[in-house]
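A favour, since you know our structure tokens better than I do. Go ahead and set the record down below.
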Amino acid sequence: MVSDSSTKEQVIIFSDTHISKFTGLFNKKAFNTGVKLINNLIKENKNAYLLHLGDITDSGTYEDFVMSKKLLDKSFSDIENFYTLTGNHDMRNIGDKLWKEFFGERQFFIDTSKNGGNMVILGIDSSEPDEDIGRIGDRGLEAIYELQAYPDDILKVLCFHHHLLPIPNTGRERAMILDAGDVSEVIWKAGIDVIITAHRHYPNIFSLSNGTRQCLLINSGTFSSFKTRGKAGHTFVELVLDNERINTKFYGIEAYSKFQKPVKETVSILKGELKPRGGYIIPGDEMISKICQFSDTHFTTGNQFLAEVYDLGVKMMIEENPDLLIHCGDLTNDAFPEDFALAKIKLRELRSINIPYLIVPGSRDLQPFGRELWVQQVGPLDPVYEDPNLRVLGINTGPEQSGHVGRSRLRMIEHEYDSYGSYKFFLVVMHHSVLPIPRARFKRAVTDAGDVIDFVTRHKVPLVLSGLDHYATTMQIEETVFVNAATFSSKKIRSRRMNTFNVISIYESGVINIEEVEIHSGTRHQLGLYKVPTPS
């Protein structure tokens, strides 16, 4: 993504103004102060772009739209390149019928080459009328994928209102885009470099990687709603593409805002893509551990359990000669006594092969009375495994479809990591994922997913394993790799690869190689090759 242009390209992003006369959530003082800051930033740059990523109004009423249009036109009268997207608040009260009258189309496409630039920006409408949740949809996914046609020397920026990944410090996870998993899959195919979202009123930036490409994920925060979070205050974002550098700055509007002094994230551009975080296995790099990760065996006397597939899969895992087997939950199908009786037999068989294993409960294992049966017949709800190289902490995320880690277990992770993470490779294992899973609605992640992601990435926990929704996927956020396993022996499959397990090879250099193995064919697929910090 190397540009020949020496011209800096400047994009200012703000959102969640929540303009209204009646609801009491519009902070006019913050709005006016923010407007002055933005105009001062771009007053000398006629080619600057100003993007509002939704929730312009607070309630989507006609009065809100009239007030918003007048205020924005007056505030940014000198800015030629001003683009807007819809938010969930704008679509309330038949606001979707009013939007076009006041602000035009519900999405936009910008190609800065018209001004000598080197960037394309796609803005997509993620809103649903009278709903707080969002959706990109098939047409939106197709529009994202079409950016693949642009060469890698063009910076590709994707914008929508709803968040793609859970945001830290925003409380219970809710109102994300339902097809976030499908979006997270297509961004790598399209070669997206920067994703900018809004919605949750907290500014945040994450570096994402699929092992070969890297992408910046930015959340802009709220510009002028009274509903702020902690000391984040009111914020907006500046994105500057300057030859081979992408500079991201958060600006806090109030003096108390923790973003009052700009926070910068600078990323170099190399060989047509952002510098990948992916690792490379080099000759002589010693493997310190091999793990077979499997999930969702769904033991039952009914027809949902594929006994022959299970037996073949276990045989294949044994042939991998792993150091550890990790089962990521939903051991049983319904947590009935007969399900646990079968599980007891199968676990006895596993013990006989003399390969250590760790199993965490899934939501299916704990209802209706599985909690007692699990402790009696399987083991601890929060199991721990240790060998000379690994420390593995299992987390019970509960019986609900949407799991929960909780503050006490976060403290437990912190204590474990502080005790062992400096000299052992540290893993956290749970059933529920904190990331969206492709081909599944994003409704079942842990409710405190944003805080969990923030916690493990700040502590640089190298590896987090999960087993949700029967689809294998990986992603690196900052320096933490998240791996989800598909189903091992259930009929309920979501992948054309059918029943699978993952082989995770951890090397002394910090390289992690993750492969998905098809049980029916033995075919291997690389899910990701990553590099993480190593214990000293």
